[in-house]
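About this split. The held-out portion is used to measure sequence recovery: a designer receives only the structure tokens and must propose an amino acid at every position. Recovery is the fraction of positions where the proposal matches the reference. Here is one held-out target exactly as it appears in the evaluation file.
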């Protein structure tokens, strides 16, 4: 089932001076801090009544914002939310049935929002002042514990995410998916030895990043980053020991693209018949999102993957590092998305509340 739609091509990825390049570019980025760096103002977004935190905050080029709001700091009931702009009141997105447990994961340039509602992968299509939810097909719904989630929707409607046919088996059965035109569903191949995974982000060439998992000899679950390269109709599927979070469009000649990862900004390039990669810049913290120009955002801190990650940052394509402003006191935060004009979205940790935030460039 999982490999039926694509042949799995051999792994032909060559590692090129990864650690050395990461170390050198980290020093260069830190040295450039404060030298011609852009400046930002912080806008804190309002939360719906009864909710105290926001996660997975994303923004499109029109500066519309989506995220998942929760009634607890780290969990509890969650709802997909939309802000028309940073100063707008939040709107909770509808479900097809109640009670409604939902999350939003991306918004494209047409205003279509991806996510999940009541364990089904959903696209919310704008309709006047509201949205019409569209449930994406689950290719293998074995029982009522099956679930699916859409993590990104492109402007042409192509959507990436994953599904799990059942959680009753207590096994690793999550399948990375691409929903394409005419409801065609493509299950992405897994690297040899891995048993499940999920797609987080994809580009217009259908290259994607996400995660894959495997059990070790002791029964513990090991999580790896994953890169799926769409190479002449088949996929080069590569696991990484660090997480991969976002991916840019390919260059005009189709030979290179950039990836935001826990190690920093990674460049993937094809030369002759071989794909290679190198970590070419790092801010010292996880890179969570990257735009087409190569600007990257994330968080610097011991828990940079979480809502209270530490110091949110922008690492510009030229290596300039900007630490984004935070409210006074013991506040921390993380940047999770940015646009081509360097507007940045993320979230803050204000100890008793964790709101969504937008950083607006002032120069």
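Reference sequence for scoring:
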């Amino acid at each position: 089932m999982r490999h039926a739609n694509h042949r799995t091509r051999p792994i032909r990825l060559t590692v090129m001076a990864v650690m050395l390049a990461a170390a050198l570019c980290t020093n260069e980025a830190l040295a450039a801090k404060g030298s011609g760096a852009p400046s930002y103002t912080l806008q804190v977004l309002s939360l719906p009544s009864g909710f105290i935190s926001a996660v997975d905050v994303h923004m499109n080029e029109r500066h519309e914002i989506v995220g998942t709001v929760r009634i607890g700091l780290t969990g509890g009931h969650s709802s997909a939310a939309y802000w028309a702009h940073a100063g707008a009141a939040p709107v909770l997105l509808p479900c097809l049935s109640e009670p409604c447990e939902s999350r939003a994961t991306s918004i494209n340039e047409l205003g279509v929002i991806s996510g999940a509602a009541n364990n089904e992968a959903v696209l919310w299509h704008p309709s006047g002042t509201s949205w019409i939810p569209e449930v994406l097909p689950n290719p293998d719904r074995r029982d009522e514990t099956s679930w699916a989630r859409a993590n990104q929707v492109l402007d042409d409607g192509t959507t990436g995410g994953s599904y799990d046919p059942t959680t009753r088996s207590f096994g690793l059965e999550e399948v990375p998916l691409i929903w394409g035109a005419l409801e065609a569903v493509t299950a992405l191949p897994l690297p040899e030895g891995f048993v499940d995974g999920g797609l987080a982000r994809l580009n217009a060439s259908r290259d994607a990043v996400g995660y894959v998992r495997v059990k070790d000899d002791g029964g513990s679950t090991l999580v790896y980053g994953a890169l799926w390269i769409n190479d002449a109709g088949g996929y080069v599927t590569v696991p990484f020991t660090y997480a991969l979070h976002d991916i840019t469009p390919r260059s005009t000649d189709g030979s290179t693209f950039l990836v935001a990862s826990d190690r920093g900004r990674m460049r993937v390039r094809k030369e002759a018949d071989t794909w290679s990669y190198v970590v070419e810049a790092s801010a010292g913290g996880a890179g969570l999102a990257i735009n087409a120009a190569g600007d990257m955002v994330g968080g610097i801190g011991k828990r940079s993957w979480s809502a209270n990650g530490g110091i949110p940052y922008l690492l510009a394509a030229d290596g300039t590092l900007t630490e984004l402003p935070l409210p006074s006191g013991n506040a921390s935060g993380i940047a999770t998305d940015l646009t081509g004009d360097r507007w940045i979205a993320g979230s803050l940790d204000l100890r008793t509340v964790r709101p969504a935030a937008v950083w607006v460039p002032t120069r």
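Annotator remark: The first strand starts at residue 13 and ends at 15.
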